[in-house]
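Q:
Got a chain?
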Amino acid sequence: MGDVLAYEAELLGLVKEYLDFTEFEDTVKTFTKECKIKGKPLPKTAGGFLRDSKALIIQKDLLTAFEDGDQKVFFELWEQHISPSLRDNDPLAQKLEFYLHIHFAIYLLKCSVGKPDKADFNERISHFKTYLETKGAALSQTTEFLPFYALPFVPNPMVHPSFKELFQDSWMPELKTRLEKFLSLTLKASHAPRLLTLYKENGQCSKEMLQQLHQQLVEAERRSMTYLKRFNKIQVDYHNLIGVTAELVDSLEATVNGKMITPEYLQSVCVRLFSNQMRQSIAHSIDFTRPGTVSTINTDICSSLEKIQEVPLLPSLDYEKLKKDLVSGSDRLKAFLLQALRWRLTTSHPGEQRDTVLQGYISNDLLDIHNSSQRNVLKLLHSKSEVVRQYMARLVNAFASLAEGRLYLSQNPKLLRVLEERLKAEVKDSLTQENVLGALQKFSLRRALQTAMINDGLIFWLVDVLKDTDCLSDYTLEYSVALLMNLCLRSSGKKMCVKVANHVLKVLSDLLGHENHEIQPYVNGALYSILAIPSIREEARAMGMEEILRCFVKEGNAEMIRQIEFIIKQLNSEPLDESVESDDEEEDEDDEEDHDTMEADLDKDEVLQPQLGELSGEKLLTTEYLGIMTHTPKVKKKLFPGVHQSIDEPLQRPVTPGYHRAAYPT
């Protein structure tokens, strides 16, 4: 009861506010009267929502100030009626406010009859500059707004190519429409009764949240048990090591006093140093009785350890049964099998173990690459189940992460087209689309597949996707830019860019200032490559590309600065013969580097979780699909050796993001 009394006035205020909002006028009068009779306190202001009529008046005043260019009145109303939390935290509100400041800064240039008043114009530009240095600084890393930070310093913005869109007749009406829509939603929403807000925030989605939290708890407990086992093992090893160290110190002291150390003692120390499964093997593999030095004994121990620690090969599988269930089983079984087969690849040890797994998949044609029948494993990319499509795309992406896997996949001429179709058909930025994109990016290491992607117009799709990077995940952004660069390195890709030169240059110049610095090498590589074409260089000069690049020379790191200097040099180079522009089309097709990198993203955000009693992963494979041992040693094909170039220059050979991070760590 004490808690109720403490908050009674506020609770009564919430009730009255809601009744006012829903226009229960008689009920409000009765409620107020009864509160007064019972001596219940009511807040003097019942909460602060606005009637629709009041909201419309505020909206009209704001739009009038916008049309009249009355900056002072507009921002007074804006700050008074748009909540600070919305202005500071909502990306949509922040972007709109940025454009509104631009509108008032250039208003006199657009709307003045005759020459604008210089003092008034300078005051507006000064106000805009102050905004950029204070609140507007938060958007300085957003590529969409980066060119506008130069606006206060340009003598005549009307003729500058970077600001051409601001002075088009359609720009101001479009901005007004955006403002009107924002105000109609915000003024109405921000003045809803607090009782309704509390209900919406706390009364809904609680069940889904509890399930999600429960799943997270189960996962956290599983990880906790794993870490606890590791900790206990490390602790035991630590105590064992301390004990052996103390004994060795005593033995060393004994030898100083002239006492000899027996071979049996050395043998017992070595046995204690290693875990139980290694002790017997090491004890019998080293001859402590023969003459030798400490270094030779260490060499023997290391040699023995290497033999013991050889990674065992994984059991063979019944691939006929596997493929049959992948084609005819339930969607849930298909998804679990695809997940388990992928985990075999991603979690196996690089070297003989992973090579043997991959060789088993390829020699048994796991993905039906050579099967042209209507019902085969590749058809899972068209499954009606989104989970099956996603897990099939993940497996294809895992195959494409390995050079031998790419060679296997490339033997089906239809697979590339299927992946391109899925890329465009899947939900934007979904995990399925991410993995299809990742596979295509790795395919672009092979020249024949590069050519096919260029001819299919994939460059145009990538440029369209990269126009709006705010809604892209880091993976999609990074692999899209890397794929674009790989395609632009070919002469046919550069010529394809000529058709949309302005769009490509605009997208790449925006990406130069993106907050994700992992994409910078690919942006620089693509830009450097396409600027080899004279017509694209002319287009770049017309849009002031050198000025944009110079901005990044001032702010970038040393590596970025050196690469940009190469790009500027390319931009200002003299036109060359067409023979120089064409790349080495006659080179051998198999010129890809040995890019075997299994990135962690392949196993991220698993949506499939086994229920009680369900088998998954390696346990599912070895329980239900165990085959006869058919492992055969295979000499891994020696691929084109990695060509490492100077990090000072933009990239000029196809790469994958995973390989580039490993070869050139930031």
Notes: The mean pLDDT is 79. The CA atoms of residues 281 and 307 lie 10 Å apart. The two ends are 61 Å apart (CA to CA).
